[in-house]
Amino acid sequence: MIGSISGQIKAKAARLDPSNYGRSDTSAVGRWFWEIDKVLLLLLAVLIGMGLIAVAAASPAAGERYSGGSVRFSELHYFYRQIVWIGVGVPVMIAISMMSRERAKRMSLVGAAIFFTLLIFVPILGPEVNGATRWIDIGIGQLQPSEFLKPFFVVSMAWLLSLREQDKSLPIFPLSAVLVGAVAVLLMKQPDFGSTIIFASVWIAMLALAGVSLRVLGILAAAAVVGVILAYFFYPVATVRIDGFLFGEGDNFQVENAMRTLTAGGLFGMGPGAGTRKFGLPEPHTDYIFSVIGEEFGLIACLAIACLYLTIVARVLIKLLDEDNSFALLAAAGLVIEFGLQALINMMVNVQLAPSKGMTLPFISYGGSSMLALSIGMGLLLAFTRRNPYLTRSPYVVKWSGEQTA
C-alpha cells in the first residue's frame, strides 16, 4: 500500500518536473514550456516582485490617507490586497500565454467589442471619483473598461491592419482612424487625456510598422500637434494641466510634491519603511508610487526599474526582427509599445517632465483593474512571441504551436 502511494507521488512529481518536457512532448504544457520566451517571463516576474515591494512601502501612506480613521485598515492593507490581485492576474497571464495565435486573436476581437461597449456606458453608469468618471461599479469592486480595452484594442487593430496584405483596395487606414477617433472621444468625456494619448500613439506606431508612407505619418504628426493645441484652448482638463506644467499656474502640489519625495532619499534611499514625505503624497500607491520608490530605495532603484522596462521593450522588438507573420508582428509590437509608453509617461510625470495624467506604473502600482488588464496584455504578448527554438525557420513554411502559415 505504502509502495503504491509512493509510486503515485513519484509519477506526479515526474510529470511536473520541467526536465521531462522533452522536445517530442506534444502536450499543451509541453509545447508551452519549450515555446514560451522564458527570459521575457522572468523579466515580468522580477517586475511584479518589485511592484509588490513598492506597494508594501506605499501602503502605510495610502492607508492613512484613505482609511478615514477606520480600524479595519492596517498599515499593509493595500499590500495584502495586491497579493490577492497578483494571485488572480498571474494565472490569467499564464493561461492566455498558452493560447494559439488564432484563439488569442478571437478572444481579443470579442474583448474589444465588449469593453468598447462598456466604455460607452461609463458616463451613464459610472460614479465620479476625484472629478473623473472612469469606472463601473460591479458590486465586488470597480471596473475600468479603458484599461481592459487597451490590449484588446491593440490586437484588434493589428488584425485590421494585417488585412491590407490580402486586399490593397480595402480602406483599412481610414477605418482604423474612425475607430481610434471614437475611442478618443469616449475617453475625453471621462476625462482621461493620458489614455487618449496612449491609444493614439500606439495606433500611429502600428501604422508605421504596417507600411504607411512617410507623408501620411507626417500628416498624422502635424494633426497630433494641432490636436494638443486645440485641446489646450477648448478642453478644460488639458488647459489646467498644461498651464500647470509649462507656467506653474494652478495647483501643482501633486507633481511638485512627487518630485521632492522622489529625490528625498538620495542615491540609495532612506531604507524600507523609513520614508516620511510619502505620507503627504496623493495616490502614493498608484500614480506616484515611483516617487515612493525613490524616497525609500533611492534613485538607483528608480534607474533599475526604468532599465527593466527598457529591457522588456527591447527584448520583444529585437525578437520580432525575423517575424514573418504581419499580424503577429503588429500585435506583439503594439502590445509592448503600449506597455512601455504607459511606464514612460508615469515616470515622466513623477520627475516633472510631463503634466499629471492619472496613470499607473505597469505591474508596480496598486490596482485590481490595472493588474488584471496588464496580465491579459502580457499574456497576449507571450502568446504572440511564442516560438519553437528547435524548428528551423524557413522562408516558405514556418510551424507555430501546431499552426502552419505560408
From TrEMBL:
Catalysed reaction equations from the record: [GlcNAc-(1->4)-Mur2Ac(oyl-L-Ala-gamma-D-Glu-L-Lys-D-Ala-D-Ala)](n)-di-trans,octa-cis-undecaprenyl diphosphate + beta-D-GlcNAc-(1->4)-Mur2Ac(oyl-L-Ala-gamma-D-Glu-L-Lys-D-Ala-D-Ala)-di-trans,octa-cis-undecaprenyl diphosphate = [GlcNAc-(1->4)-Mur2Ac(oyl-L-Ala-gamma-D-Glu-L-Lys-D-Ala-D-Ala)](n+1)-di-trans,octa-cis-undecaprenyl diphosphate + di-trans,octa-cis-undecaprenyl diphosphate + H(+)
Record's subcellular location: Membrane
Pfam families: FTSW_RODA_SPOVE
EC number, as in UniProt: 2.4.99.28
InterPro entries: FtsW/RodA
Alphabetized UniProt keyword annotations: Cell shape, Glycosyltransferase, Membrane, Peptidoglycan synthesis, Transferase, Transmembrane, Transmembrane helix
Keyword Transmembrane helix applies: yes
EC class: transferase
Transmembrane segments: 39-58, 78-96, 108-126, 146-163, 170-187, 193-210, 217-235, 297-318, 327-351, 363-384
Membrane topology (UniProt): Multi-pass membrane protein
Family as reported in the entry's similarity comment: Belongs to the SEDS family. FtsW subfamily.
PANTHER family: CELL CYCLE PROTEIN (PTHR30474), PEPTIDOGLYCAN GLYCOSYLTRANSFERASE FTSW-RELATED (PTHR30474:SF2)
The name this protein goes by in its record: Probable peptidoglycan glycosyltransferase FtsW
Top-level taxonomy: Bacteria, Pseudomonadati, Pseudomonadota, Alphaproteobacteria, Sphingomonadales
